[in-house]
Design goal:
single chain, 711 residues, 2-enoyl-CoA Hydratase, Chain A, domain 1, Rossmann fold, N-(1-d-carboxylethyl)-l-norvaline Dehydrogenase, domain 2, 51% helix, binds (S)-3-Hydroxyhexanoyl-CoA
């Protein structure tokens, strides 16, 4: 046994407890400890059954992802669990897996080798490996379809989404749900099974749900189509179907061999390395170097929002979804009516799709209180301003917050670009003020930029991070500069796309290139969705921060003047039909050609490579400046922001990781070339130049900074 695994006999039942906090990952020592405990239980004649359970908040959340990372970097092989799984399955005594929290990846694979599985109602079971660019590599692709059938196995492995215990029971993945104490329930269940005549079911020997080749062929074809559409450009979701096909067509051992080959190939891929980076980047963002673990955190139980527009109502839903009571204030009752209708419609659609029950919708609706007054502002734990981007108006609202709020209340602005310190100046308590920049739609998008002003108290930042976690979002602390991190990088990206169009591309060509590369949406489609009026105002305001005479896009003004404001007016960069489907518009092309002619810009053929380099490298360059100025704590924080808030393809790891994979020398060289061709907007960021000349990477930059912080 080891410290990581405990064996305790409960009369005739051996309870093997995994104790590897925080998530009982199968780190080195855990499989070995389990094997030793199983052997001891097998040898002990007084033991009639075995229970395997996790200590703390969860069963086993999977293989140790650090180990996978080492293997992906070429240091060592992936964890090997074959021997342990066979030992569990071949045990002469019934082995019961007692699941609470999460049984994910290798955790579910271990569970499926048991003879029986029981779970608490809140348990989640899944094979999320594709999210890390691999496939289940510990025989999961071979056992899962034997338990749940091919269609459900395809769905679980391609989506990577876990199923809740009730569904797992329906699918045959677990045998029973347990009310009350799991450990004692598992012991009782194990005794029940011990007296049943053997043999106890071995998953690997089951075939009844595997179907026949002719019946499976269309299921596999549909699965591959689903993988191509839902996980665009990703290799692992397609590869996992090859392994599932092997389960249905080959003997178990041969299927396992095939799975092993595929997982080894996946682990050696750029996609896998990028996705592993994304996993750890997201967790690293939660660590703020100057915030100690004892920084006080207040519990946010009630909030009030000023501004019932799209953002205000989205934030209200995000809060209500986590059980926080929220007052939604606006100056016009018509705005409130629209907001409540929007919220009700969103929830009703979720109920219709089966995401949650009507009762849950009713509870959430009851938490949102529309109002024209400031009632309840004096007792709220958090006040959020979500009005239009107008500094004077925001300052006025914050002055009101200052008069009304209780001393411990946190005052947040949802500004996407403005100066938090100036907003804080309108109050007598700037230490309580910060930015909480949600992304639209705020109840869906995972990112929240947490903007730290010069006076924001550490406890306010810590509370905001805890709130983001409670809302199941990803909080990333950013500095107070124009546009913070995300929008500051977005502006040059949008601008460059417009220059490309002036020089000869079309909006549809640019968008197609970006989508094919993996962006969730093309930049012109994004612009039309956000509204060209918003973009126009942002650009006008931004001019105050820029040197006069810089190249400005030519056509945006004209579209704005024509009232082509994007989706909301049925036309912007594209023309929209009733289903909001964008269609290229010759009128826009004529405007562009005209503007280019008048301004002496020769039009030429623009290649896909040029579109991609100019769009992505301009972001990387701005990201480098942000990093150098300290407005992002790490390059990986910038990646997390782009992955969780801006539709950057996860398998490319975020813009800064992507730059590392291209090679900073190459990126820098191209930026230099663009600088000489296109002028000052392409001036290389000094940090990028420095790292490129040193042959270094952003990853190395982050690591060096982290080790300095530890000194
Ligand atoms: C797999 O199993 C492959 C197999 O098929 C075999 C192949 C051969 N390993 O997320 P949190 C750390 S692939 C190592 O903030 P939560 C995490 O880094 C794996 N570490 O907590 C963090 O560390 P730190 C399949 C892990 O409560 C801390 O735990 N499994 C692992 O919000 C807390 O994490 C998965 O993909 C791990 N497996 O969420 C599950 N998991 O404090 C991945 C977590 O130092 N994990 N850590 O920053 C999750 O989805 C979430 O962590 C979980 C908890 C839902 C479990």
């Amino acid at each position: 046994m080891s410290e990581l695994v405990n064996l305790s006999p409960e009369q005739d039942v051996a309870v093997i407890t995994i104790q590897n906090p925080p998530v009982n990952a199968l780190s080195p020592g855990v499989p070995e400890g389990m094997a030793a405990a199983l052997e001891a239980a097998e040898r002990d004649p007084s033991i009639r059954a075995i229970v395997i359970i996790g200590e703390g908040r969860t069963f086993i959340a999977g293989a140790d992802i650090r180990e996978l990372e080492h293997a992906a970097q070429g240091h060592g092989a992936p964890p090997e669990l074959h021997g342990l799984l066979a030992q569990i399955e071949d045990s002469s005594k019934p082995v019961v897996m007692a699941i609470h929290g999460t049984a994910l990846g290798g955790g579910l694979e271990v569970a499926m080798a048991g003879h029986y599985r029981i779970a608490t109602a809140d348990a989640q079971l899944g094979q999320p490996e594709v999210n890390l660019g691999i496939i289940p590599g510990a025989e999961g692709t071979q056992r899962l379809p034997r338990l749940v059938g091919l269609p459900a196995a395809i769905e679980m492995c391609v989506s990577g989404k876990p199923v809740a215990a009730a569904q797992a029971l329906r699918l045959g993945l677990i045998d029973r749900m347990i009310d009350g104490d799991l450990r004692s329930g598992a012991i009782a269940f194990a005794r029940e099974k011990a007296i049943q005549p053997g043999p106890h079911p071995k998953t690997r020997q089951r075939h009844e749900k595997l179907g026949s080749p002719p019946a499976n062929a269309p299921l596999l074809a549909a699965g591959r189509e689903q993988a191509r559409q839902r996980r665009r450009n990703m290799a692992a979701p397609l590869a996992v179907i090859d392994a599932l096909e092997a389960a249905a067509s080959l003997p178990f051992e041969e299927g396992c061999q095939k799975e092993r080959e595929i997982v080894t190939e996946c682990l050696a891929s750029d996609q896998c390395r990028a996705l592993l980076h994304a996993f750890f980047a997201e967790r690293a963002a939660a660590k703020i170097p100057d915030l100690s673990s004892d920084t006080p955190i207040s519990d946010i139980r009630s909030a009030a929002i000023v501004g019932a527009g799209t953002m205000g109502s989205g934030i209200a839903m995000a809060l209500a979804n986590s059980g926080i009571s929220v007052r939604l204030k606006d100056v016009e009752s018509a705005s409130l009516d629209r907001a409540i209708a929007r919220i009700r419609q969103t929830y009703a659609a979720a109920v219709e799709k089966g995401r949650f029950l009507q009762g849950v919708m009713d509870q959430r609706m009851a938490l949102v209180h529309p109002q024209l007054s400031d009632e309840g502002f004096d007792t709220a734990d958090l006040l959020i301003e979500a009005v239009v981007e107008n500094l004077a108006l925001k300052k006025q609202i914050f002055a009101g917050f200052d008069r009304l709020a209780k001393p411990e209340c946190i005052l947040a602005s949802n500004t996407s670009t403005l100066d938090i310190d100036q907003i804080a100046e309108a109050t007598g308590r700037p230490h309580k003020v910060l930015g909480l920049h949600f992304f639209s739609p705020a109840h869906v998008m995972r990112l929240v930029e947490i903007v730290r002003g010069k006076d924001t108290a550490k406890s306010v930042i810590a509370t905001a991070m805890a709130l983001a976690k409670k809302l199941r979002k990803v909080g990333v602390v950013v500095g107070n500069c124009w546009g913070f991190v995300g929008n500051r990088m977005m502006l040059p990206y949008m601008r460059e796309a417009q220059f490309l169009v002036e020089e000869g591309a079309t909006p549809a060509q640019v968008d197609q290139a970006l989508c094919d590369w993996g962006m969730a949406m093309g930049i012109f489609a994004v612009d039309d969705m956000g509204g060209l009026d918003v973009q126009w105002h942002v650009r006008e305001e931004r001019k105050a921060f820029e040197k006069p005479g810089l190249r400005q896009p030519l056509v945006l003004d004209e579209l704005y003047r024509m009232g082509r404001l994007g989706q909301k007016t049925g036309a912007g960069w594209y023309r929209y039909d009733g289903n909001r489907k964008p269609a290229p518009d010759p009128e826009v092309l004529a405007l562009v050609e005209n503007a280019a002619r008048e301004n002496g810009i020769p039009r030429r053929t623009i290649t896909t490579d040029e579109i991609l380099e100019r769009s992505i490298y301009i972001m990387i360059n701005e990201g480098s400046r942000i990093l150098e100025e300290g407005h992002a704590l790490r390059a990986s924080d910038i990646d997390t922001i782009y992955l969780t808030g801006y539709g950057f393809p996860p398998y490319r790891g975020g813009p800064m990781w992507y730059a590392d994979t291209v090679g900073l020398r190459k990126v820098y060289r191209r930026i230099e070339e663009f600088h000489s061709l296109h002028g000052e907007l392409w001036a290389p960021a000094p940090l990028l130049k420095h790292l490129a000349e040193e042959g270094s990477t952003f990853t190395a930059f982050d690591a060096a900074k982290a080790s300095l912080a530890r000194l």
